[in-house]
Design brief:
alpha/beta; single chain; 30% helix; binds ribulose-5-phosphate; Alpha-Beta Plaits; Rossmann fold; 238 residues; 4-stranded antiparallel sheet
């Protein structure tokens, strides 16, 4: 049986391969997290085995482990400083290439690494393209201390925001609280529609206890979008 991916997995791989064309020897690279970013790591590993010289930083412990298994050395962001390029996945992508990220609970480190990069390319299969952000629950990383009080403050803000819903709750895994790599909690909010993603992203981060929200505003320079038919295309912000 062939190991070649099909369907959405093929779309993710094609997006990863298109982004890989932007990588040159000598670059410092941020490696994103999630199943699409994992494809990028696998494709990159093939080039590294062929002699490509790069210096990589991972956005999660999972990605670090995966990269090391694929033969890619990982450095800390503080050792590398600025990065030339970060390639990462997303949960939703709107026409301006604003994103919801954090489905894997890694958006704090993903945002720090993307912000430290001269270029940030988002890779995804075409199911992630949306006309408006908000159908995917917005992940908000919060400090464990007083998290329920922080949640009340978030809900107050949402009541006065241009969104269609404000239901949310702490993310769990096997009935236990999900903890991020930084040992924080994630609250996921079902907003339905986010009318003002720029304003909401800014306001959320003013709440004490909020560590980082999953809205990535004006960060991606381009999106590489793959499809189940084995094609991929580059999308620029509208
Ligand atoms: C993790 C992320 C991921 O990039 C996002 O959830 C997309 O994951 P996938 O490629 O598996 O759909 O933001 O925090």
């Amino acid at each position: 049986m062939s190991n070649e991916p099909t369907g959405a997995e093929l779309g993710k791989k094609m997006a990863a391969e298109l982004a890989l064309q932007r990588v040159q020897s000598g670059m410092t690279l941020g490696l994103g997290s999630g199943s699409t970013a994992d494809w990028f790591v696998r494709c990159l590993a093939g080039r590294v085995a062929d002699g490509l010289k790069i210096t990589c930083v991972a956005t999660s412990k999972k990605t670090e482990t995966h990269a090391l298994e694929c033969g890619i050395a990982i450095h800390t962001l503080d050792d590398v400083g600025r990065l030339d390029l970060t390639v990462d996945g997303a949960d939703e992508i709107d026409p301006a290439l604003n994103l919801i990220k954090g489905g894997g609970g890694c958006h704090l480190i993903e945002k720090i690494v993307a912000a430290a990069s001269d270029d940030f390319i988002v890779i995804a299969d075409d199911r992630k393209l949306v006309p408006n952000l908000g159908a995917f629950p917005l992940p908000i990383e919060v400090a464990p201390y007083g998290w329920q009080t922080t949640a009340l403050m978030i809900e107050d803000l949402l009541r006065n925001s241009d969104v269609d819903g404000k239901e949310g709750g702490r993310r769990t895994i096997n009935s236990n609280p999900f903890e991020t790599d930084e040992r924080n909690y994630i609250l996921d909010y079902h907003l339905g529609r986010i009318g003002d993603a720029v304003g909401l992203a800014t306001a959320l981060n003013t709440i004490p206890g909020v560590v980082e929200n999953g809205l990535f505003i004006n960060m991606a320079s381009r999106a590489m979008i793959g499809s189940a038919d084995g094609t991929a295309r580059e999308v620029l912000p509208e």
